[in-house]
Amino acid sequence: QLQLLESGGGLVQPGGSLRLSCATSGFTLDYYAIGWFRQAPGKEREGVSCISRSGGSTNYADSVKGRFTISRDNAKNTVYLQMNSLKPEDTAVYYCQTVIAPIQAMCMMAPLMVASWGQGTQVTVSS
Predict the structure, then answer these.
(1) Which of the four pLDDT bands, split at 50, 70 and 90, describes residue 3?
(2) Number of C-alpha atoms within 13 angstroms, CB side, residue 76?
């Protein structure tokens, strides 16, 4: 069974930081570009960031540029999302997913859906 496993969420005050992790079960993560998505209550799921297979190319939503950093360690089969300067509007359930890569050195924040969505990890930013 192909699975994506998100972890690292929690409750943090505005201005704080969290690091999310994405691991896989049943397939090798380094074959794919990976993206992070989030869904806030009452809103549609939106793309946050993505990283190419090698890690050499990244993309970010305008709302998180300069605050979030995506990275990957293919040896550990893990993708990370470092989130700094968190704001209340970052509150959401965060998911990772394989994403479309028009060429190997690129990524798009559009799900490829090699695996179904995982349970996600809740991030709550509140004082």
Answers:
(1) confident
(2) 9
Q: How far apart are CA 65 and CA 25, in angstroms?
A: 29
Instruction: Give me the DSSP letters along 57-97.
Output: -EEE-TTTTTTEEEEEEGGGTEEEEEE-S--GGG-EEEEEE
CA distance 15 to 80: 19
Cα gap 25→50, rounded to integer Å: 19
Q: What percent of the chain has pLDDT over 90?
A: 84
Across 91-116, b (16+ Cβ under 10 Å) vs e yields bbbbbbbbbbbeeeebbbbebbebbe
Grade residue 83 by pLDDT with cuts at 50, 70 and 90: very high
The bridge status of strand 10-12 relative to strand 121-125 is parallel
CB atoms within 10 A of CB 69: 16
